[in-house]
Structure formats: structure tokens, C-alpha cells
Amino acid sequence: MRPEILYPLFAPVQTINGIGPKLAGLLEKLCGPKLIDTLLHMPEGHVDRRSTGPLQDLPPGQVASVRVTIGPHTPPPPAARRRPYRIEASDETGTLWLTFFHARADYLQQLLPEGEERLVSGRLETYEDALQMAHPDYVVAPDEAHLIPQIEPVYPLTAGLTNRSMRKAIAGALDQLPDLPEWILSSERGREAWPSFASAMQAVHAPSDPNDIDPAAGHRRRLAYDELLSDQLALLLVRASLKRARTPALEAPGRATRALLHALPFDLTDGQREVLADIRTDIESG
Question: What distance in Å separates the CA atoms of residue 122 and residue 243, rounded to the nearest whole number?
Fold first, then answer.
């Protein structure tokens, strides 16, 4: 029977706040139906958004988070709707063009109102010698800077599921993670300087330090040890159940055997008769 302390981890993913039926279906397809399935869906990489500063100090080709003042909007002309919607943004050192394709003008005017400051995060590029950021990953007000993760995990996804939705689901699952009793010997944990299971999960899914994304970091090795330990314990339980279960003995009256031997065009050797006798004994003893 499952211990009661584990009940929250085996709740359906739809119990996470903000996860509706559609998103729950995508999560179930990708990870599994339970919260623990979501927590065990590990990131495959990270985006470092710690690069900040004046525009003049940020080279193109990297992801950066910058504070800019929003300038004029330039929507595409009606006869050329495939052209991008461009918004001029700037700080005291330079200009950054925010570029959007197939965008709704009313949405962008609300998201990026002219004359106000915004924090934008995304990859910096150059186009016609001008610095630009196409479809910023994050656009927030200056007092919402905490909504932009400095080090953002990137997860394997399925069609219809975004990385931001995945992070939202995992954050909800982390909130339900109970303070579990430790199952690793204290001497083992102390020697390896491993964190608790909950702390290890937090460091994997919500890294706060560049060292947290190192594959050889202590929390990663601790979770790998947990996986190996659980596999070995599962095998021991299966073996124990197999040892307890005895195969029922089968009746072997021998009629079919005698009929087969009678139909053979030759007589069995003494060795072959001994083998048959051993087989009969094994069947009858179970």
C-alpha cells in the first residue's frame, strides 16, 4: 500500500492550479497522468538570461534581458502584410528593434505601449546593421522582473505544449512536493554532500546558480542514485515474489508418452530413458 505522505505526488496533473483539461491532456501524453510523472520529466538544456546592461555593451548572437523605453510602432502596410510589425525601443545608449511576424496590432499596442518602459528578453540579432530582437520570449513591466528566469530550463515537448506551460506545470508540482523522510544512509549523503530529494528536484527545475546546470552537480548525482536504487529495490521485490510463488504440480499419467514411444521406429537408449525419467520426476514434483 502506498504511504499517505506520497498521495500528493500521485494526484492527477489537472489538480495543479491553472492546468485545464487541454493542457492536462498534453502533459499526460508527454510525461504521464500524475504529478510525479511531471517532476521526473527532466530538462534537456538551459537558456541563460543573466546577460543585461546597456544596449551598446550587448553583442548580437546572445540571449539578453534589457530595459528599454518603447517608441513608435510601425505595422506592415496593408498591401504587404507578410512584412514584420516593428517597434522601436531604446535606452540611453542605443536602439533595439522589436520585430513580430503575423502579429495583432491591438495586442502589441497593449503589450508594448509607446512611451513606457519594459523589460524584454530574447536573442539579439542584427538586420541591416540594426540591433533587433524577433518575438521576445518575455515582455514584462520593470516591477515584474522576477517573472523572467535568469537560468531557464528547456524541456522536451510535444505538439501544442510550450516550454513556458511546461515550467508552469512543474512549478505547480514542486509546490506539492512533500518533505519526504530520507531513504539514503546519512553516512552516504554526508560523504557525497548530497541535498535532500526535494532540494535536488528544486535545483533541477528551478536553477538559481550556474553550477546548478552542471550535469555532474551533486543534486543531479543524487537523483541518478535514487533512480538506480529504486530500480534495484523493484527487482528485489519481483524476485522475492517469484520465490514465494510455486508452480502447481502437473499430473503426468504417461499415456501420451507411451503412445509416442510406441510410434517410434527405434528403441530408446538407456541414457535417453534416464532423461525421460528425470523430466517426469521434475513435472510431478512441481
Answer: 59
